[in-house]
Every structure is written in structure tokens, then in C-alpha cells.
Design goal:
Elements: E1 8-11, E2 21-28, E3 37-41, E4 46-49, E5 55-58
Antiparallel strand pairs: 1-2, 1-5, 2-3, 3-4
Protein name: DUF1918 domain-containing protein
InterPro entries: DUF1918
Domain DUF1918: 1-57
Amino acid sequence: MQAKVGDHLLVEGHTVGEARREGEVIEVRGTDGAPPYVVRWSDGHEGLVFPGPDAHIVPPQS
């Protein structure tokens, strides 16, 4: 997985009925766009994320 600042991280729900989480990558701490990422989630919280297999990166909409 590779990301850059401004990309969106989407994490799909783990169980039926669990909502998808979306956040904006505000810092890339790995080399060449690799994790971990500092993400600002849609609820305003920020945290360090090591994305799992249920996550994917989406470039920002123009």
C-alpha cells in the first residue's frame, strides 16, 4: 500500500452492519509512501494507522 498526504484511507467494516471509516492521510511516516500513516478521521480524531487488508487508498477528488 502506498499513499501521499491528501489521499483518503477507507477501512471497510469488519462485521455485518459495521460502517466504513474514512479519513484523510495527513502524514506519511514510512518510506516511499508506505505505512504507517497519520490519519484525520471524518469524526475529527487523528491517529497513527497501520492499515490492514480491509483498507485501501483513494486519491482525493478534484
